[in-house]
Amino acid sequence: MDRRTFLKTAAGSGTIAAAPGLFAPALAQGAAKVLRFVPQANLANFDPIWGTTYVVRNAAALVYDTLYGVDANLKPQRQMVESEETSADGLVWTFKLRPNLKFHDGTPVLAKDVVMSLTRWSARDPMGLMLKGIQKELVAVDDRTFRWVLSKPYPKMLLALGKNNAPCTWIMPERIAKTDPFQQINEYVGSGPMKFARSEWVPGAKAVFERFADYVPRAEPASWLAGGKKMNFDRVEWIIIPDGATAAAALQSGEVDWVEQPLPDLVPLLRKNPNVNVDIADPLGNIGSFRMNHLHPPFNNVKVRRAVLMALDQEDYMRAVVGDDTSLWKRLPGFFTPGTELYSEEGGEVLKGPRNLEAAKKLLAESGYKGEPVTCVVAQDIPITKAQGDVTADLLKKIGMNVDFVATDWGTTIARRAQKTPPGQGGWNMFHTWHAGADCTNPAPYTAIRGSGEKAWFGWPDVPAIETEVTNWFEATSLDQEKAAISRLNKAALDNAIFAPTGFFLVNQAWRKNVSGIVKGPLPFHWGVTKS
Amino acid sequence: MFAYILKRLVSTLPVMAVVGLFVFSLLYIAPGDPAAIIAGDQATPDDIARIRAGLGLDRPFLVRFAEWAVNILYGDLGTSIFTGQPVIYLINQRIAPTLSLMLVTFVFAVTVAVPIGVLAAWKAGTWIDRLVSTFAVLGFSVPSFVVGYVLAYIFALQLNWFPVQGYTPLSEGFGPWLGNLVLPAITLGFVYIALIARITRATMLDVLQQDYMRTARAKGLGKGAILFLHALKNASVPIVTVIGIGIALVIGGAVVTESVFAIPGLGRLTIDAILRRDYPVIQGLVLLFSFIYVLINLAIDLIYTVLDPRIRY
Asked: Solute-binding protein family domain location, by residue (chain A) (predicted)?
């Protein structure tokens, strides 16, 4: 081949490659009826009771319906339920379902399905377990009515049935809901606005949802899990893109419509793209944290835990996690979600004001700490935990602690954190994580706040005062009573340094400008979204 | 020959058995707990323990291994802990993208690498030779994910010639199928080209100095005939060996490339399974990859007999 022939060939190749439609992304006609969404994680299983990860809950919200649903004010509203009655003593609850509710297999939703679904749910959910503990009877009265009889009043009943924290009260056919709650179901039939296209499910790559023609949305406007869940798409395709840079590129090129959690580093780039919108994903945000193991030295000593809180500068953590955009984070001298009605800073002085390393060192010396190694487990494969771990290691060294930094992955971290053995025998002293703000609005879903010792969340703090206030909150019958209980709880938790909050932060979501109707919330609500 | 192939295939059985035992043992002692991942972040230790029991992960090592090994003998690789789907089904879902990627990479790499290796040897010591050597050094040095991002930025985002991510089955058209594979194949083929080009150059240099090459030139044969019919054929045994070894490299590289380009292949399945501690899937994939390696080695040995009639089994 001579030079001239080569150049002709090369030019021809370029022409072919540039020809529209040959190599370009295959966008079928009627693509406006398909929403392509990149979820935060892989949908590896689809049993929302057996597996309670956020991504499973988010997918379940499309396929399953709930009896009640919280709205944007965190108030539970009727969803599948048409009406409810409570006896004067608060012990008997009678619920009536809306008419014409159908499952995706065409069968009607009956009260017996609800009873069995609630039975399975109540074995796994913290609020469900409380209900189960005081349950005398849960029965179907007729096809549309079921009754729950309790041995003592449960004022938070509607919140339990409508909360957005996993596991929610997803309603399934009785035959499926009979499955042991610790075994995985193998049929995914709900009564929600979308059907799960199981034949197209490629775990780790794609999950497809198709519109359920028989779904009857409520008449009220949609608000989070409440109101009419009107779908404007025939298909919703969840495209799993594990690499954040690839997801951002796919959004820019128009191959996907909506990315649930773009990489914070790439948000400035996305903002510059004229075809892309970027905004806060969830106004309830997230609370960063590290847990200290109360079972073993040195953190079995409250003085050591308090010394760490005294030295801790949340700004260091937030800048490491989120960056320098100060609109995305704030200091958090407490444990509950800022901006919600139970938020409290009671007892938060230890986290406020200029940091005093000398005072922290002094308190550490008083505690009797003798330089024992602190096994600090840090998952390197999750940017949030890695960033927090690096800051913590530096913090501990500054106050004179001997850090044994264990760099590992999240899979190992969550296995290791369950070990109660001493750090030298496979246990741990501290690990890093974060909590969705939606899970920290009250004590019901907030397992990390509990102080029930061996039964508490990892770190196993034993603080009876916290448990007393949790009970007071559950039994409160007015908002003022609830606020008072939470204030006392917040103070007890900080006085005992049950864990270290490292700050409150927000994350963004991003979508193409031809997509509208996306709302901010604790999960990506697909109803009400349209695409031109 | 048939007896030889049969003997080699039978000899893979103990190899696979050792691999199986090794992988199973390694995963048993490796840290991590799939039950904790399934249960979610709010789960209590008791919840996790009950899920673990439900999955049968609390049973003794020997019981689990025996059950797995017996199932393997019946062709059952087990069931994914997370999806509840058979491992064979998951592999079947993912094998086409990976085979497609390997095929395009292989064709692309061999088509580019062998000619430039021959060219470098023929023009040894010239700027062409140095250019090929520089390219080879770059191919070995630059991580494939960097190559992938650069290619995606230029050819997908800026020029819009190719999609950024995903895979389109061949049944939906050759153009879309190839379009999704071009950038990943170049990414994956970068190091493969460097490897093959280097060995081609070195082997060709050696062959070109042989007496029979001088004879060929003295006979008045053209450059093309000398290089490709005489020299390359005699240099082909080590080249084919490296191509075969390189396929192992490609399988390893596919893990990264499939992640960068979001191709739903076996590489991503492997990564996902490892991160989630989905033991049956990991075990099934390692067995599959081991079997592929064994087959590749066998194929290479058989190709030797075609390339060099002196080799007989």
From this structure: 76-431
Was domain B92-307 assigned CATH 3.30.70.20? no
Distance CA(A194)–CA(A208), nearest Å, equals 9
Name the β-bridge partners of A287.
A435, A504
CA A276 and chain centroid, separation: 25
Residue B76's Cβ-count burial label (10 Å; 0-12, 13-18, 19+) is middle
> From CA A293, how far away is CA A456, in angstroms rounded?
11
pLDDT band (50, 70, 90) for residue B38: confident
| Distance of alpha carbon A180 from alpha carbon B50, whole angstroms | 11
Exposure letters A348-363 (e unless 16+ CB within 10 A, then b): bebbeeebeeeebbeb
Mean pLDDT of B56-78: 91
What tens digit of pLDDT does each residue of A237-284 get?
999 998 999 999 999 999 999 999 999 889 999 999 999 999 999 999
Query: Contacts of residue B83 in chain A, CB cutoff 8 Å?
Result: 44-45, 203
Q: What is the 3-state secondary structure (H, E, C) of A129-157?
A: HHHHHHEEEEEEEECCEEEEEECCCCCCH
Q: Which residue of B has its CA nearest to A452?
A: B44
Share of chain B above pLDDT 90, in %: 56
Q: How far apart are the first and last CA of chain B?
A: 7
Nearest to B162 among A23, A182, A416 (CB): A23
Q: Which residues pair with A195 in a beta bridge?
A: A210
Q: Give DSSP secondary structure letters for B175-235.
A: HHHHHHHHHHHHHHHHHHHHHHHHHHHHHHHHHHTSHHHHHHHHTT--HHIIIIIIIHHHH
Tell if the pTM clears 0.95, that is, is over it: no
Distance separating alpha carbons of residues B252 and B264, to the nearest angstrom? 15
To test the contact with chain A by mutation, choose from B38, B46, B94, B279 the residue with the greatest count of A C-beta atoms within 10 A, namely B38
C-alpha distance from B155 to closest chain A C-alpha (Å) = 10
Does residue A76 contact residue A163 with C-beta atoms inside 8 Å?
A: yes
Going from N- to C-terminal start, the domains of chain A cover 1-30+241-278+510-525, 64-177, 286-505
Written as six digits, the tokens of A148 are: 């729950």
Phi/psi of residue B45, each to 5°?
Answer: -55, -35
Interatomic CA distance for residues A157 and A128, integer angstroms:
9
How far is it, in rounded angstroms, from Cα A365 to Cα A358?
11
**Which architecture does CATH list for A286-505?**
Roll (3.10)
Q: Among all residues of chain B, which has the CA nearest to that of A57?
A: B40
Question: Domain A64-177 is of which CATH architecture?
Answer: Alpha-Beta Complex (3.90)
- Cross-chain Cβ contact B42/A166 below 8 Å: yes
**Residue A347: which region, alpha, beta or left (left: phi > 0; alpha: psi -120 to 50)?**
left
Q: What is the pLDDT of residues B200-213, one digit of tens each?
A: 999 999 999 999 88
One-letter amino acid for residue B197 of the chain: A
C-alpha distance from residue A346 to each of A265, A473, A488 (Å): 35, 16, 7
Q: What is the mean pLDDT of chain A?
A: 92
- C-alpha to C-alpha distance for A367 and A317, rounded to whole angstroms: 25
Q: Can you name the residues that pair with A69 across neighbouring β-strands?
A: A77
B218-228 in b/e burial notation, b at 16+ Cβ within 10 A?
eeeeeeeebbe
Chain B environment of A433 (Cβ under 8 Å): 41
B264 phi, psi to nearest 5 deg: -80, 65
d(CA A477, CA A488): 17
- Is A411–B32 a contact, with Cβ atoms under 8 angstroms apart? yes
**What is the length of chain B?**
313
**Interface list for A 196-235 with B (CB within 8 A):** 202-206
End-to-end CA separation in angstroms for chain A: 49
Cβ-nearest to A246 among B82, B172, B260: B260
